[in-house]
Design brief:
This protein has 337 residues and is α/β, with parallel strands linked by helices. It is built from 13 helices and 14 strands. Helix 3 packs across helix 10. It starts with 6 loop residues before the first helix and ends with a helix.
Length: 337
């Protein structure tokens, strides 16, 4: 162990040299590498968590740079997948840590393989469907996970300990209904992201060090602009479908074939029968209809007022609409029926 690298952290009594060795032997998996994910990944790698797997489906755009601290203008210009860009940056920050970036959309079919064997799951997702999937797999496999969400200046987080405390479905039995603010409608500021990730990473360190008695044990919310904090201590719901009845709805039924993406005016199309696409062949086919750019990781096709970003596994992000029917129609016409 490079003691000098972690010297200030080792001086912190709750960690010390023994705790630092525990961190270097630990493994974390992060689902989502946007605003929440980049901040968590950066902090965990600098803290010396031994292995970090980053799973993300998206690519870097200029609009990300205001709050997603691992990325720069070059990443956006090259349309690098976030998982790839993050892995490159983080490996340069701390070579002690094994960083693995996976350009993958998390689904019911792959989530168990993605998180099995890891000590903790961290939430950097941007939609409730993925979070319920994380909650299902956490309870099923007994892996703790740390929920986090940010919109505008408000942040929210909760640590889930399977079998020892309430799960996300105990608190939110279903996705929010009716009108509610999103980053599409209310925007988002970086300090709110910083608050949420500070709590998420601190909770992660406590768990990895075996200090569960020092977790905050609440649904913890803070509005950094209005200076309003709230902590609610949820209880286990005996009738909870997930941790009470062990019915893993999101794992068993699978996710949707499309999802509206937060802050993007975009719809993601995900084929359940995922298959490989030859991006070179697709590029040659699409160039007759409009401008096409491609790299080893994705293809971008401009068709005003839309932009299609297609990945080798057949997944696509259709930008310029939030109408799933329009997105599916464009996908069927230009990519695959």
């Amino acid at each position: 162990m490079n003691v000098e690298k972690y010297s200030r952290q080792i001086l912190f009594r709750p960690i010390g040299r023994e705790g630092q060795e525990k961190l270097l032997a630990s493994k974390a998996v992060l689902v989502g590498c946007g605003a929440l994910g980049t901040a968590q990944a950066n902090a965990l790698v600098r803290a010396g968590v031994g292995a970090l797997r980053i799973v993300d489906r998206d690519y870097v755009e200029e609009s990300n740079l205001q709050r997603q601290g691992l990325f720069d203008e070059k990443d956006a210009a090259e349309s690098l997948p976030k998982a790839v860009a993050a892995e490159r940056k983080l490996r340069a920050i701390n070579s002690d840590v094994h960083v693995e970036g996976l350009v993958v959309d998390v689904t019911s079919g792959n989530i168990e393989d993605l998180v099995r064997g890891y000590d903790i799951i961290l939430d950097g997702a941007d939609n409730f469907e993925t979070r319920y999937l994380l909650n299902d797999v956490s309870v099923k496999l007994g892996i703790p996970w740390i929920y986090g969400a940010v919109v505008a200046s408000s942040a929210l987080t909760m640590t889930i300990l399977p079998g020892r405390g309430p799960c996300l479905a105990c608190v939110f039995p279903g996705p929010p209904q009716g009108l509610h603010e999103t980053c599409d409608t209310a925007g988002i500021i970086a300090p709110a992201v910083g608050w949420a990730t500070s709590i998420q990473v601190t909770e992660a360190l406590k768990l990895l060090l075996g200090r569960e008695n020092q977790l905050h044990g609440s649904l913890f919310a803070f509005d950094v602009w209005e200076n309003h904090a709230q902590q609610v201590r949820p209880r286990i719901d005996p009738g909870c479908r997930t941790c009470g009845q062990r019915v893993f709805t999101y794992l068993e039924e699978g996710g949707p074939t499309h999802v509206t993406m937060c802050g993007r005016n975009s719809v993601q199309i995900h084929r359940r029968d995922s298959r490989g696409l030859d991006l070179k062949v697709l590029k040659a086919r699409l160039e007759k209809f409009g401008p096409v750019k491609a790299n080893d990781f994705l293809l971008k096709f401009s068709l005003e007022p839309y932009e299609l970003t297609v990945f080798p596994d057949g997944r696509a992000i259709i930008k310029g609409t939030q109408d799933a029917a329009v997105a599916r129609g464009l996908y069927a016409k230009y990519v695959s029926s």
